[in-house]
Write a structure and sequence with these properties.
single chain, about 210 residues, alpha+beta, three-stranded antiparallel beta sheet, globular, disordered N terminus
């Protein structure tokens, strides 16, 4: 609602009739999902990955090993934001997809080095993956506790996305790319601060 369009209050005790409400245009529809993906990633990454690195989309799918059902990870290296958005549009309805907020090294694309120091090339954001409390879970915060933290945080996040598990992916965009080793240390300190603030466990990943 645009508060600048709210009509002035009218004293109903007066004989004057209430003014007719002004006709308002319907808000424009949201852009298609691929465009939404592209718009978000443009606020996070440069249009193209730096030389010697890739953007990566992870895919998890069911696989069977010796008759046992497991989830298999596959990483797809891509060079531009447009390629990432097209890939997501192609596979999102069939598989559980997620992206790596850093640019990735060639060695980091596969499952073996995923989440290790070998994987990330540059950070463009400080990001925190906050899982929330559930039945039999660790000492994770509740959704209410996370929202309280966000309300009182001295550094308002740039973007908050609700994850498929009911938790939150929280992003603080940076004005320039930071080498992974420097950024990872800062991110881990920030995660420890959030954990201390809420008195709850926050996993330190990736």
């Amino acid at each position: 609602m645009n508060l600048s369009n709210v009509a002035q209050a009218v004293n109903v005790d007066d004989d004057q009739s209430l003014p007719e409400p002004e006709a308002q245009e319907d808000p424009p529809p949201p852009p298609p999902a691929p465009q939404q993906t592209e718009l978000f990633l443009k606020s996070l990454w440069p249009d193209s990955a730096p030389p010697g690195s890739h953007y990566a989309v992870g895919m998890t799918c069911k696989a069977y090993y010796d008759g046992e059902e497991r989830y298999n990870y596959r990483g797809k290296p891509l060079k531009t934001i447009s390629q990432v958005a097209e890939y997501v549009a192609q596979w999102a309805k069939k598989y559980n997809l997620y992206f790596h907020p850093t640019s990735m090294t060639e060695a980091g694309i596969g499952a073996k080095n995923r989440g290790t120091e070998k994987a990330a090339k540059h950070f463009y954001t400080l990001s925190v993956d906050v899982d929330v409390a559930g039945k039999g879970s660790k000492n994770y915060p509740t959704r209410k506790e996370v929202k309280t933290f966000l309300k009182h945080c001295r550094f308002p996040p740039s973007a908050i996305i609700e994850s498929g598990s009911g938790g939150f992916h929280i992003y603080w965009f940076m004005s320039e790319a930071i080498p992974a080793k420097e950024a990872k240390e800062a991110q881990q300190q920030f995660i420890r601060y959030i954990s201390w603030f809420m008195g709850k466990e926050i996993d330190q990943r990736g």
